[in-house]
Amino acid sequence: MKSTRTTITLPHAVSRSAAILLAVAIGILAFTAAAVVTDEIGPLSVAVRLTPAFDGATTLAFPPFGSISADTHAAPLDAEVRLDEVDIAGLEALAAEGVPDGTDLEAWTGSAMRAVVTAGVRGTLAGLLAAGLAAFAFTRSRRFTALALAVVITVCGGTLGLGAATFEPGAFAEPTYNGALSYAPGAIALVQDRLSDIEGLQRQVRSLASDLAAYYGVDQSFTGGGSLPDTYRVLHVTDLHLDPVGMQLTLDLARAYDAELILDTGDISHFGTEQEAALAIAQMSGRPYVFVPGNHDAPDLVTRIAASGVTVLDDETTTTARGLVILGIGDPASAGPGVEPDSRRARERGQEIADARDPDQFDIVAVHDPASGRPFIGRASIVVSGHTHTPSFAMEDGTVLLGSGTTGGVHFTELRPDPHIPHGASILYFSRSDPGRLVAVDQIEVYGKTSQSSIRRTMITADGSEDER
Question: In whole angstroms, what is the distance from residue 73 CA to residue 319 CA?
């Protein structure tokens, strides 16, 4: 039986049209990839990105705070201005001078507009190059290549022109909040007032307690694992990063567990400014509070916290009312305005302090970077740390190594991405009848998005070994 094969040939004009459309699509993809620019705007380093969209919006993103967006223009193009870095010294100097004058604002607006224009030009040039190469490769025709280029320049140029002509900054009078800002819209007004009304600030933070029920989804029983009578309780929190829900959770846990001491291993702020200290101090009242600086906690903030009556430990020890000896080692970055961590320096600092002190055992060694606590294995009942935003528990040579994750529940690259980062904290139980002996550790995680929480208890035997329950 003789087989036959049927070949369908499309009209030449159709294949050329498809090639041009494909080349234009490639050009638009190239525009999206290339329409990015980084620029300095006042004390900030920002990244500007333009992307095609069904409607026109501008987003101001401040990770890990969250973002504000508004429908600012009619063109099918989204503009994102994302905070990359902050000149801490410049920011503090600006805050100290009060509200920026018209000259400053005009200069910053000009810088922002130039960044947007530069991103648009870069994207358009990349789109033209990609579309031209693709069209010529598909058609081998200069005429059709020129047609593809004309379509790209019309689409990109027309979109950018329409966006500029219809841009309305007043749209931010009705913005959309995303991330942490949605928990506290009043934060914008507080920033504008430079955190001058501390009592008002305290009221606003406390008002977030009414939002916790909805945030957690269901009522939580934090103390359902057994009360462990005749114990002295220490609440360990870390890496709050000014998250209002995490700050309220700290107070709720301290009250629920009747903790006699709150031990904070740093990064209570984002940029370490003196102004941020006002928000932190508003939450450090009512119970003894010990604070160990993290890499985000710069000198001015630490000074303000110490002046408020909080016990700040930076290469120092303190003895609690129950006789616990706590050694605190701050992150090396907290000595200056920078926030960049360095675990090598942190370990060297911990080793220097360990070598300089008598080999007597400490009850608690509190550090920000876990690397600083390694030299104290075998010399302390427990080493508590933060920095990693990841809960951890281990025991070496009779010393518990505990990381409580992040009580702020935040991430540096994206705010609360999936999988959701939980709010974490721990309760340390010390014996009242045998001072200094660690009895148990409760590791607590609250997952707000899934309305779940978990408590994992590890019992510590008299010989210093673990017995997880």
Answer: 60
